[in-house]
Each structure stands twice: as C-alpha cells, then as structure tokens.
Amino acid sequence: MEVIQLGPLTVGQLSYASPMILTMAELDAYHVSMPTTGRMQARHAGHEVMADPSTAAVFGPGKPVYTRHDGNSAELAIKIERAALEQELAGLLGRPVEGPIALPPAIDLSSGPSHAWSRLVRLLRDELEYPETLICHPLIAEQLRSSVLSGLLLSVPHQFHAELTGPAVAGPPRAIRRVVDAIHDEPERAFTVADLAAIAGTSVRSLQEGFRRHVGATPMAYLQQERLTRVHETLRRSDPLRVTVATVAHRWGFAHLGRFASAYRGRFGVPPSETLRSAG
C-alpha cells in the first residue's frame, strides 16, 4: 500500500498478490475503489457491484462493506471524510446540506465527466513515488483537494445533482467587491474558490457567475492576474544579486514555476528573469 494524503482526502494504491476477502465495519467516510488491474466484487448497503478498470465501486457512510479481490490485482482507493465532502457540497450550493449524500453504488469510468475525474485522481497516484512532490505544497494541496471533491459531486448522480448543475444566480456587485478586496489585500493567500465564496456569502456557482458578469473573468483567473501583477512589481524593484525569480514567485503564491513563467510571459511579453535583470 502507498498513500498520499491531502487533509480529509486520502488516495491509496493497493496491490493484492493473492485473492483477498475484506470485511469492514460501518464506514465514517465516503470511499471510491477504482481497480487498475483485475476485478473486485463489492457488497454494500444492499447493492452488489463488480468493479474493474472501467467501473468503480462507491461506499457511503453508515453501512458495512464486503469486498473480494482477485489475485495479482491493484486498485486506487479514495477516501473522503464525510464532513469534508458535505461541506464542499454546501459551499457549491451556498446553503447547509443534510447528508449523507446518496452517491451511486457504481461509477462508469469509461467516458464523460467521471472519466475526467478518474484522470485527476490518477494524477495524484502518479505523484506517490516522488517524496518531494509539489502536490503536498499547501497552495497546490488545497486546490487539488477541492477539485477532487467538487469533481466527484459534479460527475455522478445524487439527490443534489440537479440543483448543483442548474442555472446559477449571479452574486450581487457588493459581494463580488468583497472578494476583489480580499484578493487585493492577500493575493499570496492559498485561496480556494470555496474560500472566496465564503467571503462573498454566496455559493461557488453564484460567485463564478457574478465574476463573469461584473469582472469578466473567473475568481481564480482574477486571483492569478493579481499575483502576476505583484510578482512583476516585486521583480522590478529587486536586486538580481539578492533574490531569485523562484523566491518571488513562491512569495506571491505560485508553486508551479513552469506554469508561472508561461503565464508571466503571456501577460508581460518577457520572461520573469528578464524583468529581474533589467531591475539591476
């Protein structure tokens, strides 16, 4: 077993050399099991599922789980703490949610949004072999955790799905202004879109629609542009013998230097290193 943990989200790579039967007591979290090799038979909450690389099994809180695994098989096991997934949903909807969320017993991973979600989870799995992965950097971890949780909620049916995917009402200008001010005050803060929605006092979807209507960009795109502005200003004032581009980029919330450099060049027409050299 290999595991990567991002707060309430845990992704594990499990391998079984021999056939295995597992019985688990009542769960206190949401689990998704995605076989990558071989098959897994699962029984949970009155449902029986045969999971394989194209079908994931899903287990909700409050019921025991029985699974039978093939020999020479492997799977990705995703665990999401109950409170975290329900809070993520509440943030997306902009109102309290009474769980549990009735996720389906099986997910078709062969196409559509669920397939895209499975690729996101595999990205986390691929980082397991790198002890110094940027995925564990707080700025990246928060974004990825939220993406995995909201992606699951958006890609599978449940009792809140129609409300979650229906038309959104734009947040009012005053709420959008609060978020803009918060971004200007602390652009280096590891904001997630849920954090910004909480500042606005709206749902995530209302915040996004309000930004589209009143600002002309998504909240996270606006945050990135503000961070790029701060980096540019800092580089222009800095001594190239005393600071590096990486130090300045990290200071203003950029963890992935390759993507930062590309975004900077797209915004200012030159690489950040040139701006720093010209300051000297």
TrEMBL record:
SMART domains: HTH_ARAC. Keywords: DNA-binding, Transcription, Transcription regulation. It comes from the Bacteria. The keyword Amino-acid biosynthesis does not apply. Gene3D superfamilies: Homeodomain-like. InterPro entries: AraC-bd_2, AraC_XylS_family_regulators, Homeodomain-like_sf, HTH_AraC. PANTHER family: HTH-TYPE DNA-BINDING TRANSCRIPTIONAL ACTIVATOR EUTR, HTH-TYPE TRANSCRIPTIONAL ACTIVATOR RHAS-RELATED. Residues 177-278 form the HTH araC/xylS-type domain. This is Transcriptional regulator. The lineage of its organism: Bacteria, Bacillati, Actinomycetota, Actinomycetes, Micromonosporales.
